[in-house]
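Tutorial, part two.
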Amino acid sequence: MSLLLKSIWLLLAGVAFFLLAGLVAVWAPDKSVQELSARWAQPPSRFIDVDGVRAHLRDEGPRHDPQPQVLIHGTSDSLHTWDGWVSVLSSQRRVIRLDLPGFGLTGPNAEHDYSIARYVQFMRAALQQLGVQRCILVGNSLGGHIAWETAYAAPQLVQRLVLVDAAGYAFVPRDVPLGFQLARLPIARKLMEYVLPRGLVLASVRNVYGDPSKVTPELVDRYYDMTLRAGNRKALVLRMDGVLAGNPDHIKSLDLPTLILWGGKDQLIPLPSGERFARDIRQSRLVVFDDLGHLPHQEDPQRSVAVLQQFIGWRLGK
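Running the prediction step on this input gives:
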């Protein structure tokens, strides 16, 4: 073998070695719900069978509350996103939150159906099972879309509505988390089923914060682990393939007290969507946090929950 060929083979072998080493470094197989529950499903977490899935939920605060607050998270998130709000609210109000099918510890449904209609069916079944007849329904992003569609489909169930940087209208994002972008690319989405660089999760979470410096290692741990829950990565891909916009006529037909909270620095669903919700929903009020991003309830729970407390007509200490 000539010296040139030998050098080329050594170069190719070196490149292959470093590529393989890099792949091993980010190799991330699925984790079982049992494995993840040790950290993320401590009490008061519990699991109930709802609409064909074993749903992870937390039901806290006084059970006699006639208007429990039901909190719905967004895409690739979990019920933990509401921790800051619940720590304030649950001392005096009943607060219910669940991991949606395809996300968190609930994981995928058997039919791989992540349509809004199926999510509304899931929420109605869960609330019926929990004995909730009327509630204040709160949703962020995808959860906001599910919340207003539930209010449309079952007006007798929803007394008040809270939309936090909610999805529902067609919109043009100013920036999209890297993880969501990759979930739409044919080759990358397949690779994501087996590898998950922690840096990808970090970049995606920082992208939805108004102040990325607030993103802590513990927060990244949570999003990383929830992504690894068996079936969740495939569910995200299927959700990205679904119809993301709703029917504006459904929104315009809503007529109930509605609080709209929005982060002024939301790059994923920019503020014009929040302003449109405020125009289209009767009895609505828009509050904008100029310095916050797509998750104002998580980025600054104390300031955002104070607005919610005013909306529902009570304050702590009363």
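The chain has 14 helices and eight strands. In part three we will examine how such features are distributed along the chain.
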